[in-house]
Amino acid sequence: MARCIPYLDGQDLELFNFEGNEIHCYWLIPITKEERDYKVENGCEALEQLFEEKSLDYINPNRKCLVTGR
After folding, report:
1. CA 10, CA 1: separation in Å to the nearest integer?
2. pLDDT tens digits, residue range 16-61?
3. How far is CA 46 from CA 4, 9, 13, 27, 61, in A?
4. Gap between the Cα atoms of 39 and 36, Å rounded
5. At what angle do helices 44-53 and 33-42 cross, to 10 degrees?
6. How confident is the model at residue 7 (pLDDT cuts 50, 70, 90)?
7. pTM: predicted TM-score of the whole model, two decimal places
8. DSSP assignments along 1-70, one per residue
């Protein structure tokens, strides 16, 4: 199973050091069925590339699907 590496805003938001402990903060980003199907067909790297190319608006819960545009 492919695993997406969190990178949305860089390591400054991914890694948090607190009292000598390194804490990893991961993002859960809802995707559409079509985006999931795209990942299954093309791989995780391809989906991440699509997110970058089309400027994924990951904080917008009403965003359009980046595969279909709907």
Report:
1. 23
2. 889 999 998 887 889 999 999 999 999 999 999 999 999 999 889 8
3. 11, 19, 23, 18, 22
4. 5
5. 130
6. low
7. 0.69
8. ---PPP-TT-HHHHEEEETTEEEE--------HHHHHHHHHH-HHHHHHHHHHTT--TT-TTPPPTTT--
